Amino acid sequence: MVVGAGVAGLTAAFRLQQRGCDVTVLESEDRVGGKTASVQSDGFVVNTGATVLAGSYEALLELARDVGISERFFPVPTPVIGVAKGGRVYTIRGGGLGGLVDFVRTPLLSVRSKFGLARMASGLLRSRTRAGYEDHDARAELDTETVAQYCRRRLNAETCDHLLAPVLGGIFVVEGRDLSMADLWFTLWKVLRGGLLGYRGGVDVLARAVAARLDVRTNATVLAVSRSGDGAVVRWASEHGVHERQVDGVVISVPAPQVGELFPELAAPIASILRSCLQQANFVAVRLALTERPRSPATLVVAGPDELGGIATVSYEHNLSPGAAPAGKGLLGVLLYHEWATPRLGMSDQEFVDAVLRSLEVIEPGISKIVQFSHVTRWIPGALKSTHGTHRQIARLNRLIDPDDRVQLAGDYLGVPSVNGSIVSGDKAAERLSAALGTAFPAAAT
């Protein structure tokens, strides 16, 4: 049995089913996908959480091939990244000669700061084989200091404030200066260098395709998981009452703070890390369906925490996903900084929308007049809040997981918080559990 139908849980269930297991997935919400869910309204496909997929998402592409929908994903030909600064957006084409030309010409950095980036070369080369999704110990070796500390030591304040902090903040939706250097090296190698993936349909196109091949029960809230003999007992509630089932194995795929609540028998060292060593970030996402399509060629615009109110990222989703908006109309996705949104969680959805529109008027004048409708989603928690030491704790957490345990864990807190990181964790959980079941259950397991 798998608890949670986000991409980590669905991946684990699908891989277990491939190995001959009979799997049931329980999901408390009324839809699958978790933070990759989407809704459709008035011809718009509105993502409620994640929007941007990186070209380095190999685990995602492999899963898409295995479920037969690889044609739904494609490289974005020339992504355009904008950085908001001083009321303007400075755009840089993502990669190739055009990107180099744009970077040389951009007034975001002084000539001195641009030449100073050469001091990153040695670290960039050393990090190439370590900044990945699967080798957590190797990535932990890059977790040496915060981005701000590195910039003070090797670069300068301008490079940090005008370039690195807004780019990282826009990607991770937390204060970029506080992130670990492991996050910076990872971003350079696996996000910026690899380009972006476009997709046809909502970002949950993969989750829905995987779920269609599984036994998924939505509106089923798991109350507890407990060990029982060689397996486990899962207790859950649905509209039909409270249920209990003895199973041979379980994958728990819920946010880190909820794991210990559902599974009190969790090993103490693992429970301690989840409870005390991994900080959580809250995400508020605001989607704006527009009656007109903005002229900006940008795929993404990122901003430092002091530039556009609380806005970290503006994704021009009509430029990223064909069919996201009807012809001639636009769809923007706005993610707000954790540090800005968290003390304001008491605000109403409309208050969040109003705050976002006031800030967006700086870079998209008149946008308030072309809003057809808005959609607000709150993820509490949303993902890990990484800083110096986080990747070392993640590596330690993965080492502590018993591969023979009949209760396994999956989720983006076990790696780099991302859709691909979630899929990797689901793959690993299925691999461990199927091996554990195989020692005692050579035939298909429940």
TrEMBL record:
Transmembrane annotation, as ranges: none
GO MF terms, alphabetically ordered: oxidoreductase activity
Residues in Amine oxidase domain copies: 7-433
Signal sequence coordinates: none
Stored Gene3D superfamilies: FAD/NAD(P)-binding domain, protoporphyrinogen ix oxidase, domain 3, Protoporphyrinogen oxidase, mitochondrial, domain 2
InterPro entries: Amino_oxidase, FAD/NAD-bd_sf, Zeta_carotene_desat/Oxidored
Protein name as catalogued: Amine oxidase domain-containing protein
Organism annotation: Mycolicibacterium insubricum
